[in-house]
Amino acid sequence: MKEWPLFEIFIRSSHGLAHRHVGSLHAADENMALQAARDVYTRRGEGTSMWVVRSSHIVASAPEDKELNFDAADTKPYRHPTFFDVPDEVGHM
Amino acid sequence: MYAQMVNTGVSRVESREEMSPEARRFQERVDADIRIEPREWMPEAYRKTLIRQISQHAHSEIVGMLPEGNWITRAPNLERKAILLAKVQDEAGHGLYLYSAAETLGVSREELTRQLVTGEAKYSSIFNYPTLTWADIGVIGWLVDGAAIMNQIPLQRCSYGPYARAMIRVCKEESFHQRQGYASLMVLAKGSAEQKEMLQDALNRWWWPSLMMFGPPDAESVHSAQSARWKIKLFSNDELRQRFVDQTIPQAEYLGITLPDPDLRWNEERGHYDYGKIDWAEFQAVVAGNGPCNRQRMQSVNSAFYDGAWVREAAAAHATKTAERAAQSNAEQKRAS
Questions:
Q1: Among the residues of chain B, which ranges form H helices?
Q2: What is the interface pTM, i.e. ipTM, of the complex?
Q3: Is A29–B318 a contact, with Cβ atoms under 8 angstroms apart?
Q4: Chain B contacts of A40, Cβ < 8 Å?
Q5: N or C: which terminal CB in chain B sees fewer CB atoms within 10 Å?
């Protein structure tokens, strides 16, 4: 028998944060993946919403492209508010 | 532990000078506590060892459901039954987290299942002992899960990202397992003479096998040295065992039970408890397949796998059929519009 496809599971917690990746599981189809995700990843009230996505549908950046993708930001500290000094006298900004 | 005597496939630990440039970069990242992620370069032996270790850990969670499953229908009341069901369900979940982590290293679930069903892969020695009375269930939660926690807490910081993350999730849930066990023992400890006797008897049978869970002393082992270097083993077997003994003794005293070891005493000089000699011949026999329940466990694993085959096939057939019907109705809608 062919192995069931792999699904990635995302759960949104009750605190209003975005869906977060929590793990993966094998299931015959999307519906079964949702049911299994409830049993495997929300046994203690961890979530208010679930997403299941076939792992094969995820496109990921390559580890060897890490520098290419992310190092450019290192030379742009002015993108952070802490780059700029604001005198105490002007109060909260 | 849940993974015992994991073979690293190396005959000695390489020095930094002998390493290839990639291997050296890898080791530097490990030394700097940078997590290794699935698609990054890693030594082949690291990958293979982790597959062995994580899958053995996963198999232990799955086989570990069997001794406790024995008591689900025999639990003394509905609350205990619900708690035990929840715990056993957790073990299945822990197995799944771990299988998923192993799969990120390039091995398929199918292959991992095959290794378990054929007996090619090992699981922890502890699950080859029988659960004869209800007290065994409490003692398993207290001692067996307690020993597992000792090992799993440091593994939350291990070098392989998916394994570390699985351990964080497992540890969150494991504390419930130990406490529910101890809580049920407190009831027995305050109960009738028969209940106290049952508790002491369970402890007598589980104490030594629990200590064996940590595996033989590993001072001399090249595999332990290599695993430590890779940070997939963070403390030696004896260090963890000592911690476990030190932690457990006051808990046993509170229950008013006697640990079955006449050599157990506080050593002021070491600041630890001394304990008696462990029967490693028994451990080796169990690992070799000759424990009290090895055959029964393998039979249960096999019948679950083969008797459940039709369910897996039916689910797959249903998924194919629904996908085909959805495609058909899409095509019809397109033609209609």
A1: 21-31, 44-63, 65-69, 78-103, 109-118, 134-139, 145-155, 161-189, 193-212, 222-229, 237-255, 280-285, 294-307, 309-336
A2: 0.86
A3: yes
A4: 93, 96-97
A5: C
